[in-house]
Amino acid sequence: MNPLGLILLAIIAGGGLLWLKNQPPANRTRAALKVALLMIFLGLLFLAITGKLHWLGALLAITLPFAQRLLPLLLRLLPFLQRIFSANRRRSGQSGKQSSVRSQMLAMTLDHDSGAMDGEVLSGSLQGRALSTLQKEEFLQLLKECRASDADSARLLETYLDKRFGSEWRADDQDAQDQNSDTASSGNMGEDEALEILGLKPGASREEIIDAHRRLMQRNHPDRGGSTWLAARINEAKSLLLKD
């Protein structure tokens, strides 16, 4: 086979893959189909130019009887494969749940699967900013404002900072107070807030509450690097909803 032709096909394939990588995720399936069709067309053209197209005809003649036997089997398996695909879609739809925790100055979200946290500043000099966009100096300023006006907001922000920066940020925290800000909760939790913390909807069953609590504690237990304060809020939410 002509090495120059193979090199040309490889260059075209590489360009196609690079183009495919740069496509928006929503368009990649259609783009991949276009690249595949283009490569098939170029491959057939290459075989025709080099006089090797008859090999393709011989290959098709050999595989056609096997394809005729496999096709009915694939058709019988199709409903089974569809059930598997639907089950996977349902499972993936159940994942990605988020819990919400709200204080006077912050609205936080916690992803159940990854344990990642993000949030928005609700009041103060940084109102409207997403926490993921703040720099360390801005975090320290926000923490100072939280400590001055709302203890729950300060605890919540400290939990976020511990998850994002570990304990390193505390070395720059000149305004740290000599108190254990990771222990008690506010004691004012309502049912709506408890449902938001566990990522549940009104009317959740006992099993759903226990499952959500277990999943969150696996990610946020203090023994695994989680915040004692956040773990206390999760436990409080479970107790309130189960009327323990």
Shape: elongated
What is the number of helices? 8
Q: What's the N-to-C terminus distance?
A: 76 Å
Number of strands: 3
Radius of gyration: 29 Å
The CATH superfamily of the largest domain appears as DnaJ domain
Low-confidence regions: 177-185
Helix content: 55-70%
- The main sheet orders its strands as 1-2-3
The domain count comes to 2
The CATH architecture term of the largest domain is Orthogonal Bundle
**Helix-and-strand structural type:** mainly alpha
Indicate the CATH topology of the largest domain. Helix Hairpins
Q: Can you summarize the main beta sheet?
A: 3 strands, antiparallel
CATH class call of the largest domain = Mainly Alpha
The share of residues in extended strands comes to 5-15%
The secondary-structure element order is HHHEEEHHHHH
Region (Disordered): 170-191
Membrane topology: Single-pass membrane protein
Domain J: 193-244
Main location: membrane
